[in-house]
Amino acid sequence: MQNSIKLIEIGNNIRNWRQLKGMKQDGLASEIEISKVSISKIETGRADISLLRLFAIASALQIQVQLLFSDPSTLVRENENS
């Protein structure tokens, strides 16, 4: 149960970062050579994701992998307040 909550959170963060970077699901899927359906499943927490895949996603989004564990809207708000 707890594992699926984390997958949902990570998936939401991936989607948020992807959108923040102006990338569509099919563009991200193409960058990391998986299907758009697989990206959708990852973003909704319906698919397990390997560490290697997380690194590939971070690379495609041009961010550090640890940022996939942080909600980008929080980081944007923090930067705006600085």
Low-confidence stretches: none
Using the CA coordinates, give the radius of gyration.
12 Å
Reported for the largest beta sheet, the result is: none
Distance between the termini: 37 Å
Assigned CATH class: Mainly Alpha
As for the CATH topology, it is: 434 Repressor (Amino-terminal Domain)
Q: Rough shape? A: globular
Element string (H = helix, E = strand): HHHHH
CATH superfamily: lambda repressor-like DNA-binding domains
Quick take:
This protein has one domain (2-81): 434 Repressor (Amino-terminal Domain).
Describe this structure in words.
Helix content is 68%, strand content 0%. The chain has 82 residues and is mostly helical. It has a single domain (2-81), classed as 434 Repressor (Amino-terminal Domain) (Orthogonal Bundle), CATH 1.10.260. Helix 2 crosses helix 3 (36-43). The longest helix has 19 residues, at 2-20. The protein is globular.
